[in-house]
From TrEMBL:
Residues 272-344, 366-437 form the ACT-like domain. Its EC number is 4.3.1.19. The keyword Transit peptide applies. One of its GO terms (biological process) is isoleucine biosynthetic process. Belongs to the serine/threonine dehydratase family. This is Threonine dehydratase. Its cofactor is pyridoxal 5'-phosphate. It is found in: Plastid, Chloroplast. Pfam families: PALP, Thr_dehydrat_C. GO terms for molecular function: L-serine ammonia-lyase activity; threonine deaminase activity. It catalyses: L-threonine = 2-oxobutanoate + NH4(+).
Amino acid sequence: MAKLPKEQLERGVICSSAGNHAQGVALSAKKLGCDAVIVMPVTTPEIKWKSVERLGATVVLVGDSYDEAQAYATMRAQKESRTFIPPFDHPDVIIGQGTIGMEIVSQMKGRPLHAIFVPVGGGGLIAGIAAYVKRVKPEVKIIGVEPSDANAMALSLHHGQRIMLDKVGGFADGVAVKVVGEETFRLCKELIDGVVLVNRDAICASIKNMFEEKRSILEPAGALALAGAEAYCKYYGIKGENVVVITSGANMNFDRLRLVTELAEVGRQREAVLATFMPEEPGSFKKFAEMVGPMNITEFKYRYNSTKQEALVLYSVGLHTVTELEAMKERMESAKLQTINLTNNDLVKDHLRHLMGGRSNVQNERLCRFVFPERPGALMKFLDAFSPRWNISLFHYRGQGETGANVLVGIQIPLSQMDEFQEQADNLGYLYALENINQVYDLLMH
């Protein structure tokens, strides 16, 4: 922006951003005395866009994803003759982000450095850091970290060309980008040493680890690289080495902490979610408790089933090692209490664990998971698309703060109408997935 001619600055600037870039553009505009419009997705946490407004920029909330916000920003830039300031795919931006690499090398003061872990969205941050560090310290590994449901860089590197994702997970909203930049991909293909993928549970565990270590609360995208470093070091047995992690943001909405708290223990492998079948007869509950033994039960859900001879118990246990959990499962199996580990099943953790006792057989029921944008009218838009065409047989809402709400929906749809339903769902524009093939659906709901 400092390089722009005066007449361009007078026409103003515009950018699209999920957070940090927005603050940089707003601050630069304030320093340079020009007008700035910042376009952010509707799902952007309030803490982010409020901080941009405080810097004097005009914030416009458009679309449910970064890519929709970017499309609006580029259109408005042409219409109003504003200069579009790219968030990552520009040499000047990449060079600016590369100064972080310079700071890291300077602060290490000649000490050996094994690796730098960098969160990846569009790729500007990791491209800049890699460009500098690989020039001055080529032995240092530069490793990107992406959420497993927003892995555009990992896929692009694997295929040797930029890949656009059909959909991206919004939990780590700061890196929720469908396609990486052209210039950033060129540099990453040449310079970085690999990408680590982590899931939502691991990110939550790292948020908790940072809080307990430093009393700092990171946002999901900010904890992303920390989760990747922890997974990498554990997998390769890295000990006694210096590693650096880029913690890229602390824009955590308070209401999202509830979800982080619930998933953190699972991510740290300190809690497991299980289901056990036991006979519907006196004494079976006591027998079950004896088999759990020294393990601490942290959650327990059971409902008497008069139509079956066997009951299903859904519960969580605290654990310290994987060995302890396996030993408990063996005790259960030896007592003829069939036990299933559901810890890694997101459908269970987000929804089904809250719906125990509601098991029934519903004709033509199709189970779907949707992500609703957190804004007024989202529910009515959904209902307008499907009701009264099809009957809704189940509905469970799971808020995630302002990044979007996980919603589990049961809809009665004859097989002959599935194509019509999927066309309607695609046109709705919300992220969704059919879950009937998930085996725990039959286990817990039928």
